[in-house]
């Protein structure tokens, strides 16, 4: 592979934009029976639902003595009560009750983060709430479409979220890390095509007339029980800011037109991934495997979920080991090979967003006019 040089990224430079949507939890995790505590992009949050079912995300620290609101209880139609001294807040974060006094301090409030339920997840916006546009929530429509079936899990990864993004943008590692399930030598020998714009990066790989690896052979036989022979395989990886990657994957009987768009003689899945940074060395990795065949067979849904979970456990072990090595070598710069082209563009987009927010903050604090980020300014190279 041709060495593309250093990325300019080190452990010290791995950061995350705040003016963006991140998943705080699965929709079924956020309810009214208990308050859910989550940290999103370094912001501790207390999450719950109003009586009407609307998700709420408040800063997880009472205005009075910073007691965690997630340890409290829900009151009224949309409120929450501090577990320490009983202060109550509404869903907008404003204090509505103080014990032993009638007058409420007008400054008594906690941050309320925009929260939206979509695609079986609850998404939150940890940055400037005036910029929170729900149309910017990444497209994961397969998660709740009747044309797709599947399930997933959450992995609490002791690694920086950008390492998870790197892992998903370069699937050649399957040949070496997942050799018993989805890996094969054609992953490294096939060409990739990389495209990008200001919010997305897409990596496309086609493999023609190859042996089906064990995972995909099983899936072909789930749909076509008598299948024998070789396959055409595809991987189309699409990243969307700030941290969602949906991967169009599958195989079809070789030579039946799948790589030109006719997948009728194959099996098609979408690996849905969205990663939430908790802190610099921890992330929550929400994933699901969705398919568009044998939709009524729960057995296949369970088998796929458990099989993919086993594959991702191998990734998790590697990512944690990688994070430990980064901690031991904090000034080491990452180098890119050809296979890293997609991940390199992801890092550029993220770094550009982080720098743009810094410039906005600088302009706001200094009174200077805020200008657009110059192309290439301090982004990953």
Report what the structure shows.
This protein is an alpha+beta fold. The protein is 22% helix and 30% strand. It has a seven-stranded antiparallel β-sheet. A four-stranded antiparallel β-sheet has the order 3-4-5-10, with no helix packed on it. Strands 6-7-8-9 form a four-stranded antiparallel β-sheet, with no helix packed on it. Strand 18 and strand 19 form a beta hairpin. Helix 1 packs antiparallel against helix 6. The longest helix is centred in the C-terminal third of the chain and has 31 residues. The protein is globular and about 80 Å long.
Describe the structure in brief.
Helices cover 22% and strands 30% of the residues. With 381 residues, it is an alpha+beta fold.
Kindly report the average pLDDT value: 90
- The value of Rg in angstroms is 23 Å
Strand content: 25-35%
Structural classification: alpha+beta
SSE string, helices as H and strands as E: EEEEEEEEEEEEEHHHEEHEEEEHEH
Quantity of strands, as a count: 20
Tell me the strand order in the biggest sheet.
Answer: 13-19-18-17-16-15-14
Distance between the termini: 18 Å
Low-confidence residue ranges: 1-6, 10-14, 368-381
DSSP helix count? 6
Helix fraction, binned, reads 10-25%
Largest pleated sheet: 7 strands, antiparallel
Specify the overall morphology: globular
Helices and strands in order:
Layout: E1 5-6, E2 22-26, E3 36-40, E4 43-49, E5 55-59, E6 73-75, E7 79-81, E8 88-89, E9 95-97, E10 112-113, E11 115-118, E12 121-124, E13 149-157, H1 161-169, H2 174-177, H3 186-189, E14 192-196, E15 200-210, H4 214-223, E16 231-240, E17 244-253, E18 266-279, E19 282-291, H5 298-328, E20 335-336, H6 341-366
């Amino acid at each position: 592979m041709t060495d593309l040089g250093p990325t300019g990224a080190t452990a010290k430079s791995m950061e995350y934009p705040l003016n963006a949507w991140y998943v705080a939890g699965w929709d079924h995790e956020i309810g009214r029976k208990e308050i859910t505590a989550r940290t999103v992009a370094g912001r501790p949050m207390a999450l719950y639902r109003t009586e009407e079912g609307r998700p709420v995300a408040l800063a997880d620290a009472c205005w009075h003595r910073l007691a965690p609101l997630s340890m409290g209880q829900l009151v009224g139609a949309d409120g929450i009560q501090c577990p320490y001294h009983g202060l109550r807040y509404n869903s907008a974060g404003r204090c509505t009750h103080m014990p032993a006094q009638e007058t409420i301090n007008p400054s008594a409030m906690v941050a309320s983060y925009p929260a939206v339920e979509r695609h079986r997840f609850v998404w939150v916006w940890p940055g400037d709430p005036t910029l929170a546009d729900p149309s910017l929530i990444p497209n994961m429509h397969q998660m709740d479409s009747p044309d797709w079936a599947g399930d997933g899990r959450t992995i609490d990864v002791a690694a920086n979220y950008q390492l998870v993004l790197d892992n998903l943008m370069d699937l050649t590692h399957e040949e070496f890390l997942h050799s018993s399930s989805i890996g094969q030598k054609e992953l490294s020998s096939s060409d990739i095509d990389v495209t990008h714009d200001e919010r997305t990066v897409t990596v496309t790989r086609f493999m023609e007339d190859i042996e089906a690896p064990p995972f995909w052979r099983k899936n072909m036989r789930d749909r076509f029980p008598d299948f024998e022979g070789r396959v055409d395989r595809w991987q189309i990886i699409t990243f969307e800011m700030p941290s969602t990657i949906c991967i169009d994957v599958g195989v079809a009987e070789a030579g039946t037109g799948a790589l030109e768009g006719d997948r009728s003689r194959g099996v098609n899945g979408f690996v849905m991934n969205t990663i939430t940074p908790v802190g610099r060395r921890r992330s929550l990795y929400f994933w699901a495997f969705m398919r568009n065949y044998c939709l009524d067979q729960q057995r296949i849904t369970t088998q796929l979920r458990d099989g993919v979970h086993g594959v991702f456990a191998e990734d998790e072990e590697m990512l944690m080991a990688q994070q430990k090595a980064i901690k031991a070598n904090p000034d080491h710069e990452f180098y890119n090979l050809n296979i890293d082209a997609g991940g390199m563009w992801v890092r550029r987009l993220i770094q550009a967003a982080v720098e743009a927010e810094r410039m906005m903050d600088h302009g706001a604090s200094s009174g200077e006019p805020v200008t657009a980020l110059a192309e290439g300014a301090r982004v990953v190279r």
